[in-house]
Every structure is written in structure tokens, then in C-alpha cells.
Write a structure and sequence with these properties.
- This protein is an alpha+beta fold and 336 residues long.
- It has two domains: 143 residues, PurM-like, N-terminal domain (60s Ribosomal Protein L30, Chain: A, 2-Layer Sandwich); 159 residues, Alpha-Beta Complex (Phosphoribosyl-aminoimidazole Synthetase, Chain A, domain 2).
- Bound molecules: adenosine-5'-diphosphate (ADP) and magnesium ion (MG).
């Protein structure tokens, strides 16, 4: 997916030159009747399915810093975080729309790398870029991505379906991304593993689909704002409380080692965001099916707690064994 002739600046290429450059890198797909180049895209969708749509904004110095990430990874992440939302509904992604506000100092190679990353991530998920909008930004780099996908109404997994007594599960490991960010903020260099987890998240599409197809999850969300905040969304929507055992939260060896030296960073793991793992509820009797799915996908699925009646709020057993009622908050854009 490379565009052979390099260009130096946006001024040289112009808006339509850039759109054309992107268009030439997009692979044709039979479900795209009319893609980049007309006033609207026209696409076909699987019959008898619901259309899923999600949008994410990525703003320089709010969501990312250009000095901390390479542009290829930023392109991949811009697509991945949207795919993660489709995964969280149990859906299949199909089409992307990419809006960009570009600072004029952005070098041609940087822009090419961004587009290459975006299109590689889209392709890996068997999706196509069908349109977008391209503008100059007088300030920072702005990226606005819309993804559309589909799911059958009977399989869709929402945030409000959790039931009292069910188990709470998470995929993968938590806290890697938040730890990488904390290290970057301190001026330290995270390990390759932590960097990858922060800059190149993996949308859990296969897991989301399998949970939906097998009817294994009663509610689900992707963890973007932090475990507690996103669990809070499930609890609020499902009118429930929960008990979480922090000992059970799956951690990578790197995060575990860090916490041994810096136990004070415990909250980074609980409240830090951008894991892009899936948090879901399931009836306890489906535990064996989940174990089987976990080995099939080669992805840990860990039981971290239980759903309780709403009056029990959110209780957490901390690493030192003490139990606390906690506030289900993580990252919030408008709170200091
Ligand atoms: P309009 O003026 O009607 O909004 P544009 O000139 O902005 O149309 O866009 C022309 C075509 O290029 C449209 O099909 C649009 O979807 C597509 N496009 C514009 N920017 C992007 C982009 N960043 N990525 C993909 N497609 C784009
Ligand atoms: Mg336009």
C-alpha cells in the first residue's frame, strides 16, 4: 500500500491532489457502488442487518502528540479505535470515512505515512475507505473518523443488557497503554511492548463477533476511558452495581513489575484509558464456553468480578486486600 512518488508539501499537492492520492491507494470493493470522488458515497449493506455507525475525533495535543508517535501508527490507531466500537457491539465493520484538518507544515512523507497506516488497518479489518473531507487547519492536526458496520438485531450486544449475578470479564491485559502514557509524560521511554500497546491498539473484532454469534455476552463495552469509567457505563445503563477483585485484573508482566516498584500507580491501571480491550458480562454457566473461545482466539478472557444489585454500588477489593466503594470514573474531557 505505498504511493511511489513522494511529495514535499501540501501546498504543492493541493486538496484535490491529496484526495486523488488517497483514492489511488484504496482497493476496490464490490459493496462500494460509488466511492471517493462524488458528492456522497453509495454502498450496499448486508440484508436484514442493522447499520452500526461510530465516530471518533483525534485532536493533536488532546489525544496524541506528534512528538510521541510516528504517523504510520497514528494512522493505524485512528482506524483501530473506531473498529473497537464496532467490536463492542458484536458487529462487522464495512466502511470508513476520514475527515482531516491538516496543518500546512505537515510534511508530505508524514501525511503519506499516516494514510498508509490508516489504510493498512482498514484493510486488515476487511473494510474500505469510502469518503471523507479534507481541510486546512490553522492550528493542530485534527482527525475525524467514521466507521460503519452491521450486526443482526438478535445478536447486537448493548451496554444495558447486564443482569444481576452475572460475571464480568475483560479481554487481554489492562493498564499497558496507560502506563506507556504515564512514562511518556514523565519524559521516559516506554518499552517496545508498552509503546505498541499505546500507539497500536488491536481492535478485538474476532472476539466481539464470536461473543455475539454464540450469544455469550449480555452487555459489552470497549475500554477506552478506563476500566472503572467504562464499567460505570454498563452499571448505569443496566441499573446494577458490581464487585471487582483487583487481584484478578489481568496485567502484563511489565505492568506487574512496575506496580511492584510503584504501588502508588495502582489507580493508573484502574482509571487509565485506551486499553481497547472488551469488557463484557456473561452468565456464570457460560464460563466453559468462554474458556474455549479464549483458547481458540489465543486471547485471555479473565473473570474480574460479579454484577450486584444497584444499591451495592461499585465495590473493589484492592491489591492490599482492603475493600472500598469506589467512584466509577476514568478520563473525562471536561473535568480537570
Ligand atoms: P464536497 O465538496 O462535495 O464535500 P469534496 O471535494 O470535499 O466534496 O470531496 C470529494 C470527494 O473526495 C468526496 O467523495 C469525498 O468523500 C472524498 N474525500 C475528501 N477528503 C477525503 C479524505 N480525507 N479521505 C477520503 N475521501 C475523501
Ligand atoms: Mg467536502
Amino acid at each position: 500500500m505505498s504511493e511511489s512518488t513522494p511529495f514535499k508539501s501540501l501546498a504543492e499537492l493541493g486538496e484535490f491532489g491529496l484526495i486523488d492520492r488517497i483514492k489511488r491507494q484504496v482497493l476496490q470493493s464490490p459493496d462500494v457502488v460509488c466511492g471517493i470522488g462524488d458528492d456522497c458515497a453509495a454502498v450496499t449493506l448486508p440484508e436484514d442487518k442493522l447499520l452500526l455507525t461510530s465516530k471518533d475525533l483525534l485532536i493533536e495535543d488532546v489525544h496524541f502528540r506528534r512528538c510521541w508517535t510516528d504517523m504510520y501508527s497514528l494512522g493505524r490507531k485512528s482506524a483501530a479505535v473506531n473498529l473497537s466500537d464496532i467490536a463492542a457491539m458484536g458487529g462487522t465493520p464495512h466502511h470508513f470515512y476520514l475527515g482531516v484538518g491538516l496543518p500546512t507544515d505537515l510534511a508530505g512523507i508524514e501525511l503519506d505515512n499516516f494514510c498508509r497506516g490508516f489504510l493498512d488497518e482498514a484493510l486488515a479489518a476487511q473494510t474500505t475507505l469510502c469518503g471523507g473531507d479534507t481541510c486546512r487547519s490553522n492550528h493542530s492536526l485534527l482527525i475525524s473518523v467514521t466507521v460503519q458496520g452491521s450486526v443482526s438485531a438478535t445478536q447486537m450486544i448493548r451496554r444495558d443488557g447486564a443482569q444481576e449475578g452475572e460475571a464480568l470479564y475483560v479481554s487481554g491485559t489492562l493498564g499497558d497503554s496507560a502506563l506507556a502514557l504515564a512514562l511518556l509524560k514523565k519524559g521516559e521511554t516506554p518499552s517496545d511492548y508498552l509503546s505498541q500497546r499505546h500507539h497500536r491498539p488491536t481492535p478485538r473484532l474476532a472476539l466481539g463477533r464470536a461473543l455475539a454469534e454464540q450469544g455469550l455476552a449480555s452487555s459489552m463495552i470497549d475500554i477506552s476511558d478506563g476500566l472503572l469509567a467504562d464499567l460505570g457505563h454498563i452499571l448505569k445503563k443496566s441499573s446494577l452495581g458490581a464487585h471487582i477483585d483487583q487481584q484478578q485484573i489481568p496485567l502484563s508482566p511489565e505492568v506487574r513489575a512496575h506496580l511492584q516498584q510503584h504501588p502508588e500507580d495502582e489507580t493508573t491501571i484502574l482509571r487509565g484509558g485506551e486499553d481497547y480491550e472488551l469488557l463484557f458480562s456473561a452468565p456464570p454457566r457460560r464460563g466453559d464456553d468462554l474458556d474455549q473461545l479464549s483458547s481458540q482466539l489465543n486471547l485471555p478472557l479473565t473473570r474480574i468480578g460479579t454484577l450486584l444489585p444497584a444499591e451495592k454500588r461499585l465495590n473493589i477489593v484492592q491489591l492490599n486486600g482492603s475493600e472500598h466503594q469506589v467512584c466509577a470514573e476514568g478520563f473525562n474531557h471536561f473535568k480537570s
